[in-house]
Design goal:
The complex is a heterotrimer of chains A (about 325), B (about 375) and C (about 325). Chain A has one domain: Rossmann fold (3-Layer(aba) Sandwich). Chain A has about 325 residues and is of the alpha/beta class. Helix content of chain A is about 45%, strand content about 10%. Chain A is globular and about 50 Å long. With about 375 residues, chain B is an alpha+beta fold. Helices cover about 25% and strands about 25% of the residues of chain B. The two termini of chain B are about 60 Å apart. With about 325 residues, chain C is α/β, with parallel strands linked by helices. The chains are: A alpha/beta (about 325), B alpha+beta (about 375), C alpha/beta (about 325). Chains in contact: A-B, A-C, B-C. The interface between A and C is large, with 46 and 43 residues. Chain C: It comes from Amphritea balenae. Chain C: Its cofactor is thiamine diphosphate. Chain C: GO terms for molecular function: oxidoreductase activity. Chain C: Keywords: Oxidoreductase, Thiamine pyrophosphate.
């Protein structure tokens, strides 16, 4: 476990990381509840257990950098600074949602945050990241494109095509593999001959690293190093974050593929528990302070739900808007 | 009952993991719900005490219905564990708009959409025009000529004797003789057994319930087709499609000339009295109107009886896309050799004209033999 | 057939269009398999590498999904990429990026992001390239909302349509028929530039309308010429843009001639010809004086031998026969 002894790791920063992770956790727990009440529909893929990755990586990214994510992207959106109210409204399909209600849980977008969406085709976002980075490079902009994807993406051709292109053209892409060990219900061992995903990047001469994805400080440190490498050396970097999702793949999943003991083992080293315990052990966090964090988060979640509930659905009359720029054909 | 997925509309409560009076906290697993994707743990989103379990294990419950009552110290009794209300039912408020039933008439005029529009605008009845398009269809030039009244060649009034029906028969028979390689078989069948059985049957019937011998002949043909499917069906686009059912088209002549061939549907499944009724009914409706479209289109074979005209043998022309026609001659008392003696017997000549692309003479002979055999056992019909 | 100074080829017209685009906008770059050092599979981009360099005339690995998706990303990032896919058959490897990303991102993001991407690809049969290099799948792309689909059939359109596609803020797919690359015409002039999404009459006529697009246009014009010798005055409508279809032009022509033959190198089943036929049925039924007729490719993968390949494709004689039958002169 990386000790939080770097200069930027001070107490207030750790508390901020903790609060950010709790914010994502509570938001998603509420989403699960709203889903069972049929307020949220479609697929709902929860990030619970993996929060350290989105939060840790975001510490290393600048506002002008770009992000591309998967359909499990609520955490990234919140960590990136999209307003919780806009994300919740999107979950409801309301017009005030961050994608105007057209995308839903799997397709959160925000131009102002350079947040290029949840992409629901596994590995479908990787070529886009290559292109965004190519545009930056061709226009001599010093930006990074961070691309998050699960380990399931490593089986797709687009993964390999994108890694090759990014390396070949020395593009500023931060590839972040969120390895939670299961592609839906298929264990990594059932789908990959090389299960150290970061080693696949070596084949493309991309510097790569595996990190404990349950330790937000370790993730942040790795992401900062990766970004430094990209900004100085110019080419891509590949970060494999080893993690675990505590919840089902989506809501409608009886989890026949793994047993509860395994989930429990991972829960014990969950990112929030881990950081909370560490802070307590070092007397850096008192119960009232934690309670206050929880209260602030709860209030924010509640406000987001109220806003979403009260927001308007788009009128059917504008159904064909946004198919083409400036109207539909 | 919580919803775990958009395609879940109900769940089977498999097991309660809590009982009445148990304290529960947010996130606890309280029940196991069986769904079509397997068993899913159900968590609660409130903390409190289980006031009541409303549903027994083994019960299937619609999404949104309460299955338990949790006292969280705030909410009133009877709020469900899932705290959700049943989803509003999206009933359609659209009243079904019904299109008026299409009128199907036998003398439908073939005309292009443009010709129809032009004729309607000019108030010219299409029936008065003769078409110059494909298959005699009326096209724009015909209507325009009639409007102009200047081109007698293009728009002469329709000759009164060339009815649409006559044209249809002409077209079908021309096509038949051009396209279908016919072969012909005929055989004489002894109807003595059949007529004796019929006489005995009719003795017990009211006069209006009595059967005619032609009913037995039709029924025998229908039953014989069961084992000879290559004569019952349609030849379309170079392929024979056997008809799954046995519908016999029966030729009924019209008083004013021409003939119509409506179907006796499911003929092999009708009892003899039912078939008799059906034939009477069809004859009536042919002459008065009121045939259904299915009766005009789905017969896989035609039976043509010319007996009432005193004809001995029929040499039929197949009605395309059918592949066979059975001809029934006039049943007559004629000399017949039985056990080396000449006897007077009631005989009928039954003929078959069939499409050589689908069957051959050996199969045709088998069909005629089957009909004969059935007519020797009339009680089985 | 050598090009003299008075004519240019379709290939040269596309090259001029690319050159003009690269010269006039620094955001434009060309990317695809063998577009640089090789000069383009169909020699369209020959010489461009020398003028614009490797950054802007960018050879890619054989990674259709990767580089088409990179084109989508670069468009999102402010560039104006022109991505060349060698043939429509290969574009199936990039279908995910075209259909799931390029066509949807604007909508999924609630209008926040546009994808100003141009994808060019070769299409069609006639060069004995057999069943994996010869198909006409324009109709698959024309099915997808969010895309625009162009089929330049003349040297003038080859010269001017690319610029229009680049000006468009949404993804545009351009199909260049392989049999057109060697076609010759006098160099087009500015007045030949037509709007991107309008069909145009390549020949006016009164008796019937021949509707077509892309590589079939020369055959259709040839057929129209033959028909005129039989006294049939045929109108030829070149669709040019396959999505959105210029329904107004289609209906207007049907209203004039009342008889239609649609010529489409795609397979008949589920074809664009079927779509156009349905549009006519829906919007011009009462103008029809005869059933709509389609002349399409036979329903087999394109075979290698020349005589079989030609037997699959719509030929001028097929068009003439269909038109004569329709005019009641067969």
């Amino acid at each position: 476990m990386t000790q939080p002894d770097k200069p930027h790791i001070n107490r207030s920063h750790l508390i901020k990381l903790l609060q950010e992770m709790i914010r994502i956790r509570r938001f998603e727990e509420r989403c699960a509840e709203l889903y069972t009440q049929q307020k949220i529909r479609g697929f709902l893929h929860l990030y619970i257990g993996e929060e350290a990755i989105a939060v840790g990586c975001n510490q290393a990214l600048e506002p002008e950098d770009a992000l591309l994510c998967t359909y499990r992207e609520h955490g990234h959106a919140l960590a990136r600074g999209l307003s919780m109210a806009a994300v919740m409204a999107e979950m409801y399909g309301k017009q005030s949602g961050c994608s105007g209600g057209r995308g839903g849980s799997m397709h959160l977008f925000d131009n102002s945050k350079r947040f290029y969406g949840g992409n629901a085709i596994v590995a479908g976002g990787l070529p886009l990241a290559v292109g965004l980075a190519l545009a930056d490079k061709m226009q001599q902009r010093n930006r990074i494109t961070a691309c998050f994807f699960g380990e399931g993406a490593a089986a797709e051709g687009e993964f390999h095509e994108s890694l090759n292109l990014a390396a070949l053209w020395k593009l500023p892409v931060l590839f972040i593999c969120e390895n939670n060990l299961y592609a839906m219900g298929t264990a990594l061992s059932l789908s990959e001959s090389e299960q150290d995903i970061y080693r696949k990047a070596e084949g493309y001469k991309i510097p790569s690293l595996a990190v404990d994805g349950m330790n937000v400080v370790a993730v942040e440190e790795a992401a900062r190093n990766a970004c430094t490498s990209i900004r100085t050396a110019g080419g891509p970097f590949f970060l494999e974050c080893r993690t675990y999702r505590f919840r089902a793949h989506s809501m409608f999943d009886s989890q026949l593929y793994r047993d509860k003991a395994e989930i429990e083992t991972w829960r014990e080293k969950g990112p929030i528990v881990q950081l909370t315990n560490w802070l307590r052990d070092y007397h850096q966090l008192q119960d009232p302070e934690l309670a206050e964090i929880e209260q602030v988060v709860e209030d924010e979640v509640e406000a987001a739900v109220v806003t979403a509930e009260n927001a308007d659905f788009e009128k059917v009359a504008t159904l064909t808007r946004d198919v083409y720029t400036g109207g539909s054909s | 009952m919580p919803s775990f997925g958009a395609d879940m509309d109900s769940g089977l409560l498999q097991e309660w993991l809590v009982k009445q009076g148990d304290p529960v906290s947010k996130g606890d697993i309280v029940a196991v719900i069986e769904t079509h994707k397997g068993a899913i743990d159900m968590e609660v989103f409130q903390s409190g005490t289980v006031r009541a379990l409303l549903v027994e294990p083994g019960t299937r419950v619609k999404v949104g219905m309460p299955i338990a009552d949790i006292d969280d110290g705030a909410s009133a009794p009877a709020s469900g564990a899932s705290a959700s209300e049943p989803a509003p039912q999206h009933t359609s408020d659209k009243t079904a708009v019904s299109t008026p039933a299409l009128q199907r008439s036998q003398d439908r005029v073939k005309a292009s959409p443009l010709a129809r529009r032009l004729a309607e605008n000019a108030a010219i009845p299409l029936q008065d025009l003769q078409g110059s398009g494909p298959d005699g269809a009326i096209i724009a030039v015909d209507v325009n000529a009639a409007i102009a009244g200047s081109d007698p060649g293009a728009a002469v009034p329709k000759p009164p004797d060339r009815s649409a029906m006559r044209q249809a028969i002409d077209a079908a028979m021309t096509r038949s003789n051009r396209e279908i390689p016919h072969y012909y078989l005929a055989t004489t069948i002894d109807l003595q057994a059949a007529s004796q059985w019929l006489a005995a049957f009719n003795l017990e019937q009211e006069p209006d319930q009595q059967l005619l011998i032609t009913v037995l002949l039709h029924k025998a043909v229908a039953v014989a087709l069961r084992d000879n499917p290559e004569f019952n069906g349609f030849y379309i686009e170079n392929h024979f499609q056997p008809s799954p059912d046995i519908h016999l088209a029966t030729a009924i002549s019209l008083r004013g000339g021409g003939l119509i061939t409506p179907a006796i549907r499911y003929a092999d499944q009708l009892t003899l009295p039912e078939m008799m009724d059906k034939m009477r009914d069809l004859t009536l409706r042919v002459r008065r109107g009121g045939l259904r479209s299915s009766e005009m289109s789905d017969a896989g074979i035609t039976v043509s009886g010319m007996g009432e005209r005193g004809v001995e043998t029929v040499f039929g022309v197949i009605y395309p896309p059918q592949v066979a026609i059975i001809g029934l001659g006039k049943p007559e008392l004629r000399p017949w050799v039985i056990d080396n003696t000449v006897q007077a017997r009631l005989l009928v000549n039954i003929s078959l004209a069939a499409d050589h692309r689908v069957s051959d003479g050996r199969q045709g002979a088998k069909l005629l033999r089957s009909i004969n055999k059935l007519l020797q056992q009339p009680e089985c019909l | 057939m050598a090009a003299d100074t008075e004519t240019i080829s379709y290939r040269e017209a596309v090259r001029l269009a690319l050159q003009e685009a690269l010269r006039s906008d620094s955001r434009v770059f060309l990317m695809g398999e063998d577009v640089g050092h090789y000069g383009g599979c169909y020699a369209v981009s020959k010489g461009l590498l020398d003028e614009f360099g490797e950054q802007r005339v960018r050879d890619t690995p054989l990674s259709e999904s990767g580089f088409v998706g990179a084109g989508v990303g670069a468009a999102l990032g402010g560039m104006r990429p022109i991505v060349e896919v060698m043939t429509v058959n290969f574009s199936l490897l990039a279908l995910d990026q075209i259909v799931n990303n390029a066509a949807t991102i604007r909508h999924m993001s609630g209008g926040q992001f546009s994808v100003p991407l141009v994808i060019r690809m070769a299409t069609g049969a006639g060069k004995q390239l057999a069943a994996q290099h010869s198909h006409s799948l324009e109709c698959w792309y024309a099915h997808v909302p969010g895309l625009k689909v162009l089929a330049p059939a003349t040297i003038a359109d080859a010269r001017y349509m690319l610029a229009l596609a680049l000006e468009d803020p949404d993804p545009v797919v351009i199909f260049e028929h392989v049999m057109l690359y060697n076609e010759l015409a006098p160099p087009p002039v500015e007045s030949d530039r037509l709007p991107m999404d309008k069909a145009t009459l390549r020949r006016s006529g009164n008796d019937l309308t021949l509707i077509t697009y892309g590589g079939s246009l020369p055959k259709v014009l040839q057929a129209a010429e033959q028909l005129s010798q039989s006294g049939i005055d045929a109108e030829v409508l070149d669709l040019r843009c396959l999505r959105p279809l210029d329904t107004t032009a289609i209906v207007a022509s049907v209203a004039r001639t009342h008889r239609v033959v649609i010529i489409d190198e795609g397979w008949r089943t589920g074809s664009l010809a079927g779509e156009i036929s349905a549009i006519i049925m829906e919007q011009a039924f009462w103008e029809l004086d005869a059933p709509v007729v389609r002349v399409c490719s036979k329903e087999v993968p394109i075979p290698y031998p020349e005589h079989l390949e030609q037997a699959v494709l719509p030929q001028p004689e097929d068009i003439v026969n269909a038109a004569k039958q329709l005019a009641g002169l067969a």
